[in-house]
């Protein structure tokens, strides 16, 4: 029997089937039972091997090593997050922004911030929001407040086969942005080669869309983030400007609370570090200590 093995990326899960993007096409396949025996489950974004027999039937037979697996529902091998934060409806929140940034720093995933619905807020309020976002740009987070500029630059930012995923609170405008960036997102992204003779399932939970040389993931995940598993002593490591300042703290492993000669506290007093960032750091410390998720996220 002639058997062909091919590698690809899982781009969607549909009613027990896996759509795998190879170099040439999208192939619909099922996973072998060995995954259940090993208590494994392929996720969107996984690099996998699929096997074709001479009858043209395909099976997913191997999950290649993962870089990461984040969110519920999960996306694997995420290189970058495009974080959508709305100016209004729901209102802009630095607290929520810091929460997302802390989570993705913990997951070791880079973040680019996009402000949605900027055209729906009055000029004075928009100026205040942009002033806040200027701080995040200064500490190293790319920030976009213009959708057209994002559309122009995003394709060149996504590397070969990199997976970017949208994230943000419900109602922030992730789907609207996706449809703007990828106008065929609500259509089939490629012809599906399959010997299973089944139609495409209409319910989509997570899906990857080709965007130039990489992928952009549409996912409902990341709306309610649990940070309580973070170790309290590690939390400061996920605030990028704290990490930069801590080399000048008197004590190694400084938690930036009441320690003498703390560089973070000095920069806070000089208003180099944003007061709301430090307040959110303290709030997250309390949340982790008590092992509870805030009521507004439940």
Automatic annotation (TrEMBL):
Biological process terms from the Gene Ontology for this record are:
ribosomal small subunit biogenesis
Required co-factor(s) are: Zn(2+)
Residues binding GTP:
116-119, 168-176
Question: E.C. number, please?
Answer: 3.6.1.-
One Pfam annotation reads RsgA_GTPase
CDD domains xref list: S1_YloQ_GTPase (cd04466), YjeQ_EngC (cd01854)
Q: Which SUPFAM superfamilies match?
A: Nucleic acid-binding proteins, P-loop containing nucleoside triphosphate hydrolases
Mainly resides where? cytoplasm
Tell me, what is one Gene Ontology molecular-function annotation carried by this entry?
A: GTPase activity
Superkingdom of origin: Bacteria
Enzyme class at the top of the EC tree = hydrolase
Q: Which residues form the CP-type G domain?
A: 67-225
Q: How is the cofactor bound?
A: Binds 1 zinc ion per subunit.
What Gene Ontology cellular component terms go with this record?
cytoplasm
The record's PROSITE patterns line, in alphabetical order, gives: ENGC_GTPASE (PS50936), G_CP (PS51721)
Which UniProt key words apply to this protein? Cytoplasm, GTP-binding, Hydrolase, Metal-binding, Nucleotide-binding, Ribosome biogenesis, RNA-binding, rRNA-binding, Zinc
Q: Which HAMAP family match?
A: GTPase_RsgA
The record's section on NCBIfam families has: ribosome small subunit-dependent GTPase A
Family indicated by similarity: Belongs to the TRAFAC class YlqF/YawG GTPase family. RsgA subfamily.
Subunit details: Monomer. Associates with 30S ribosomal subunit, binds 16S rRNA.
Name the UniProt record assigns to this protein: Small ribosomal subunit biogenesis GTPase RsgA
What is the originating organism of this protein?
A: Lactobacillus pasteurii DSM 23907 = CRBIP 24.76
């Amino acid at each position: 029997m002639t058997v062909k093995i091919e590698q690809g990326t899982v781009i969607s899960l549909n009613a027990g089937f896996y759509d795998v993007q190879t170099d040439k096409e999208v192939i619909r396949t099922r996973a072998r039972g060995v995954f259940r025996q090993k208590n494994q489950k392929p996720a969107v974004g996984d690099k996998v091997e699929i096997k074709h027999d001479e009858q043209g039937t395909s099976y997913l037979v191997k999950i290649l090593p993962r870089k990461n697996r984040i969110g519920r529902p999960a996306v694997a091998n995420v290189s970058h997050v495009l974080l959508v934060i709305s100016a209004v409806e729901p209102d802009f929140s630095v607290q929520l922004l810091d929460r997302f940034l802390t989570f993705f720093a913990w997951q070791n995933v880079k973040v680019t911030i996009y402000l949605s619905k900027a055209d729906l807020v009055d000029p004075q309020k928009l100026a205040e929001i942009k002033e806040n976002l200027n701080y995040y740009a200064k500490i190293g987070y790319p920030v976009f407040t213009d959708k057209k500029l994002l559309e122009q630059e995003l394709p060149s930012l996504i590397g070969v086969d990199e997976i970017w995923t949208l994230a943000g609170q419900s109602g922030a405008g992730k789907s609207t942005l996706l449809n703007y960036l990828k106008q065929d997102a609500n259509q089939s992204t490629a012809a599906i080669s399959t010997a299973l003779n089944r139609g495409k399932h209409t319910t989509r939970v997570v899906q990857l869309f080709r965007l130039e040389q990489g992928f952009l993931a549409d996912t409902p995940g990341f709306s309610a983030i649990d940070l309580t598993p973070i170790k309290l002593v590690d939390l400061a490591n996920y605030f990028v400007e704290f990490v930069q300042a801590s080399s000048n703290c008197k004590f190694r492993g400084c938690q930036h609370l009441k320690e003498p000669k703390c560089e973070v506290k000095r920069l806070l007093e000089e208003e180099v570090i944003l007061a709301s960032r430090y307040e959110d750091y303290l709030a997250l410390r309390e949340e982790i200590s008590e092992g509870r998720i805030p009521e507004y996220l439940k």
